[in-house]
Amino acid sequence: MWADQLSHEVTMKRSLHLVALSLCLILGSPALAEGPASALKKSQVKLAEQGAKAAQKGQHAQAIRHYEAALRQGEANSLHLAVGRSRGALGQCAAAEASFQRAAGAPEVAPLEALRASIDEARASLRATCPSLLTVECDPADMVLKVDGHRLACGVVVALAPGIAKVVGEAFGGSVVQEVDLKPKARVTLKMAIEGPSMFKEPSDDVHRP
């Protein structure tokens, strides 16, 4: 009986190691292979491994078929990320971004913090292959601009990853905020204005007029 229990534990450890290796192949990061890998079924692991191998060969359409077959057996954040990576490699920008968004909300197989770092890396790659181009026209022209927390110059074209971008403008002690939905390979011009203090004050009613 003790021997049977030991054999079962060895088998389980091998299975978990296999899943961890699969996640590492899929996500390209050893840190992402440290999560609750047992949440994946053995059949999902096999499909994920096949997808990872196809992706490494540049066969991304085939990789997506394997990953999506695995997803039909159960949601997993790592698998959605893998789909997004392969869709990005095929130039399917909007679909890739949608997969990254699903990865952020799917059941946790890979550790969430490491997964977010990997999503940021994948989005950076997506920005290079199919960016959106944003220009912000400012009034006043010296308005301080930030896009998702990063400084941006007025009137300058900047390449951003597709998705929702939060643009904040500051001037005269006030601020204005706009959100813009950036489509892949789109060119977007945003106009932002903040009214400054008036140079001439209207006379009040109690001022004596001749």
Give an account of the 3D structure.
With 210 residues, the protein is of the alpha+beta class. The strands form two sheets. A four-stranded antiparallel sheet has the order 3-2-5-6, with no helix packed on it. The chain has a three-stranded mixed sheet with strand order 4-1-7, with no helix packed on it. Helix 2 runs antiparallel to helix 3 and helix 4 runs parallel beside helix 6. Strand 5 and strand 6 form a beta hairpin. 46% of the residues lie in helices and 20% in strands. It has two domains: 128 residues, Serine Threonine Protein Phosphatase 5, Tetratricopeptide repeat, CATH 1.25.40; 62 residues, Carboxypeptidase-like, regulatory domain (Immunoglobulin-like), CATH 2.60.40. The N terminus is likely disordered. The protein contains six helices and seven strands.
Helices, strands, pairings?
Blueprint: H1 2-27, H2 42-56, H3 60-71, H4 77-89, H5 93-105, H6 112-129, E1 132-139, E2 144-147, E3 150-152, E4 158-160, E5 163-171, E6 174-182, E7 187-193
Parallel strand pairs: 1-7
Antiparallel strand pairs: 1-4, 2-3, 2-5, 5-6
Helix pairs in contact: 1-2, 2-3, 3-4, 4-5, 4-6, 5-6
Quick structural gist:
The chain is α+β, with helices and mostly antiparallel strands. Helix content is 46%, strand content 20%.
Low-confidence stretches: 1-22, 27-38
Question: What is the 3D shape?
Answer: elongated
* CATH fold-level name of the largest domain: Serine Threonine Protein Phosphatase 5, Tetratricopeptide repeat
Number of strands: 7
Terminal Cα separation, in Å? 110 Å
CATH class (first level) name of the largest domain: Mainly Alpha
